[in-house]
């Protein structure tokens, strides 16, 4: 298996599923690091994989426009959704009750499916003018938000399969990630334009100004369960935590790592040494980890730290990834360009992270918060 496009932890944290550019899907045991069963060939690059909330089903979306529903052991008996999208599927999402699957595609459509039968529910959700790259269900499963390559978000009523209100405009480039708040009152979105935006889910109007200060494409976003913080991660593997109400940055993994690497020197000394004018982390790593864990398993791709130092070495823009399974530190692969060619997932329950490499290797390691 080469070039891992997508990774997802099971709700229990015991398994991780990987989808690759080489048409394969494979399931791994987190505890042993051993593949479960055999790799399955879906005859098309796998762009997105997801577990259902009960852990009983795995959904995959591929460049051939098809969705496939597997049992949690990836047996050969699966539901292949017929007559699906006409172009690549970029994202799949599962409702919290596990009954509905949403798919986002380059054909500019969003489709809703029955996860148990594979039957399409209602009419395709049309209205996007460009490729759709992200989808997310509301907590009650009655609404869906989608984001496209033009940076526009649309909110859908799944009772009537109709658009709710006006499109949400603000991002200037691809909308790559969206998420509802736990109470369903807000929507958070991240974009290629290196901003995060918060929206009122009832009025579809922006709440405050866009959140800036990110150093690269924003790939993942979530709101903490208490609604006090916005957590996000960019393509350079940095995790950010901000206050939701005023947008103030209170923690970044980059700041935490730099302080630790310099023996815990205070912020003023660090700024003088590095010639930087950065803020000081207002919360410690333990509190940051608690906030990230509160975002639920659906946001398991967000890091407690950008690169746990016990297992990874960073040299300039290059990243070398090691596994530490059974106490043996083994180099699995290396690549250049930060997060551009590597896929990461972190499970907040078990504090285990998985890394997918262009080589097809998957590293399963303990995340250390020291």
Task: Write a concise synopsis of the structure shown.
The chain has three helices and 28 strands. It has helices at 253-261, 267-274, 285-293, and strands at residues 4-9, 15-20, 24-29, 35-41, 46-51, 57-62, 67-71, 78-80, 89-94, 100-105, 110-114, 132-137, 143-148, 153-157, 162-163, 175-180, 186-191, 196-200, 218-223, 229-234, 239-243, 249-252, 312-315, 318-323, 330-336, 343-347, 352-356, 362-366.
SSE inventory with pairings:
Blueprint (H helix, E strand, L loop, with lengths): L3 E6 L5 E6 L3 E6 L5 E7 L4 E6 L5 E6 L4 E5 L6 E3 L8 E6 L5 E6 L4 E5 L17 E6 L5 E6 L4 E5 L4 E2 L11 E6 L5 E6 L4 E5 L17 E6 L5 E6 L4 E5 L5 E4 H9 L5 H8 L10 H9 L18 E4 L2 E6 L6 E7 L6 E5 L4 E5 L5 E5 L4
Question: Helical residue percent?
Answer: under 10%
How would you state the average pLDDT, rounded? 75
Task: Name the poorly predicted regions.
Answer: 256-277, 297-342, 366-370
**What structural class do the secondary elements suggest?**
mainly beta
The percentage of residues in β strands lies in: 35-45%
Biggest sheet record: 4 strands, antiparallel
Shape: globular
- Radius of gyration, in Å, reads 20 Å
Strand line-up of the largest beta sheet: 1-2-3-4
What is the number of E strands? 28
How widely separated are the two ends?
Answer: 34 Å
Number of helices: 3
Explained architecture:
The protein is mainly beta and 370 residues long. It is 7% helix and 41% strand. The chain is built from 3 helices and 28 strands. The protein has helices at 253-261, 267-274, 285-293; strands spanning 4-9, 15-20, 24-29, 35-41, 46-51, 57-62, 67-71, 78-80, 89-94, 100-105, 110-114, 132-137, 143-148, 153-157, 162-163, 175-180, 186-191, 196-200, 218-223, 229-234, 239-243, 249-252, 312-315, 318-323, 330-336, 343-347, 352-356, 362-366. The chain has a 4-stranded antiparallel β-sheet, with no helix packed on it. Strands 5-6-7-8 form a 4-stranded antiparallel β-sheet, with no helix packed on it. Strands 12-13-14-15 form a 4-stranded antiparallel β-sheet, with no helix packed on it. A hairpin with a 4-residue loop joins strand 26 (343-347) and strand 27 (352-356). The longest helix has 9 residues, at 253-261. The chain is globular and about 50 Å long. Mean pLDDT is 75; it is low at 256-277, 297-342 and 366-370.
């Amino acid at each position: 298996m080469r070039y891992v496009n997508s990774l997802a932890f099971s709700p229990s944290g015991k398994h991780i599923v990987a989808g690759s550019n080489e048409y394969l899907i494979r399931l791994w045991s987190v505890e042993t690091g051993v593949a479960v069963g055999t790799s399955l060939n879906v005859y098309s690059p796998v762009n997105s994989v997801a577990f259902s909330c009960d852990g009983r089903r795995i959904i995959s979306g591929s460049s051939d426009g098809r969705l496939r529903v597997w049992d949690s052991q990836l047996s050969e008996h699966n539901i292949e959704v017929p007559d699906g999208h006409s172009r690549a599927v970029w994202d799949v999402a599962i409702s919290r009750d596990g009954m509905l699957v949403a798919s986002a595609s380059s054909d500019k459509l969003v489709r809703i499916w029955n996860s148990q039968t594979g039957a399409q529910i209602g009419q395709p959700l049309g209205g996007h003018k460009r490729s759709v790259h992200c989808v997310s269900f509301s907590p009650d499963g009655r609404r869906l938000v989608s984001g496209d390559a033009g940076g526009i978000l649309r909110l859908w009523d799944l009772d009537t399969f109709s658009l709710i209100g006006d499109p949400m405009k603000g991002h200037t480039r691809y909308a790559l990630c969206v998420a509802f708040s736990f109470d369903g009152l807000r929507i958070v979105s991240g974009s290629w334009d290196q901003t995060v935006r918060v929206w009122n889910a009832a009025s579809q109007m922006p709440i405050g100004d866009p959140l800036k200060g990110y150093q690269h494409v924003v790939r993942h976003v979530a709101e903490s369960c208490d609604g006090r913080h916005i957590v996000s991660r960019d393509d350079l593997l940095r995790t950010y935590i901000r206050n939701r109400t005023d947008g103030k940055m209170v923690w970044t993994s980059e700041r935490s790592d730099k302080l630790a690497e310099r023996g815990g020197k205070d912020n003023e000394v660090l700024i003088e040494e590095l010639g930087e004018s950065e803020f000081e982390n207002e919360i410690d790593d333990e509190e940051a980890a608690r906030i990230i864990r509160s975002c639920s398993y659906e946001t398991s791709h967000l890091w407690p730290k950008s690169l746990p130092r016990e297992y990874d070495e960073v040299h300039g823009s290059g990243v070398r990834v090691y596994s530490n399974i059974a106490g043996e530190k083994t180099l699995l692969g290396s690549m250049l360009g930060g997060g551009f060619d590597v896929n990461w997932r972190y499970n907040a329950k078990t504090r285990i992270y998985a890394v997918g490499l262009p080589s097809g290797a998957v590293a399963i390691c303990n995340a250390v918060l020291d």
